[in-house]
Amino acid sequence: MTAGYLSKVRIRPYEPRDRADVVAAEADLQEFERKLHDTRIPGDVAAEPTFRLLESLINANEGEMFIAEEDGAFVGYAAGFILRDENPAETEDSNVCGYINDVYVVPHRRGRGIASLLLRAVEDYLRAKGMARLRINTLVDNESAKRAYSKHGFEPYEVMMEKRLKQP
Predict the structure, then answer these.
(1) What is the pLDDT of residues 111-165, one digit of tens each?
(2) Is residue 10 a contact partner of residue 18, using CB atoms and an 8 Å limit?
C-alpha cells in the first residue's frame, strides 16, 4: 500500500475511551481464530476476560497498547509487554524479552500496512525499554498473520505441537 494511504493512519497509545473498540476487536479476533482451531471459545464470551487479562499483563510488565486510527476511526490495535522467564538454558536476552500479545486490524483495512505500523510502534516502545529480542505467537494455520509477521522481520523460533488425548 502506498505511503500516502499510511500517512492518513495515526498510531497512538491506548486511552480508556478505546476500551469498547478493543473489546469488540478481541471478539472478532477470537471468532477468526475459532475457525482455525477448536480450542477457541466464542468471541462474545472470551472478549471481556481476554481484555482484562491483557490489561493486567500490560500494567504488570511495563507494557503498552497502541491504537491505529484512520480519520479518527478505530482501525486496529497492538499490545506488548516485557516477558520475563527463568529458563537456565536460555540467554539473558532470551529470558527477558519483548512480547507482542495481540495485533488486530479491522477486516476492511487489512493488507494495507496498518499491522506493520502497529508492530513498529510496539517494537520501538520495547526497544526503548532495553529489549534486545521481540517475540510473537500465532496459530499455525493463521497464514495471514505469519505473512505479516515475516514481512516485519520475525522468524520462527519455537513451534509448540499438540496431540489430543481425549475427544470433545
Answers:
(1) 899 999 999 999 999 999 999 999 999 999 999 999 999 999 999 999 888 898 9
(2) no
The pTM (predicted TM-score) of the whole model is 0.92
Do the Cβ atoms of 125 and 100 come closer than 8 Å?
no
Cα 56 from Cα 16, distance rounded (Å): 14
Could you give the strand order of the β-sheet that contains 134-136, starting from the edge strand earlier in sequence? 9-13, 64-70, 73-84, 96-105, 134-136
Residue with cell 477486516: 107
CATH level 3 topology of 3-151? Aminopeptidase (3.40.630)
Helical (H) or strand (E) element with 10 = strand 9-13
Show Cβ contacts of residue 75 under 8 Å, excluding neighbours closer than 6 positions: 9, 68, 69, 105, 106, 109, 114
Distance of CA 1 to the CA centre of its chain: 21
Note the helical H segments in 10-142: 19-36, 43-60, 92-95, 114-128
Mean pLDDT (the chain) is 94
What is the grid cell recorded at 99?
512480547
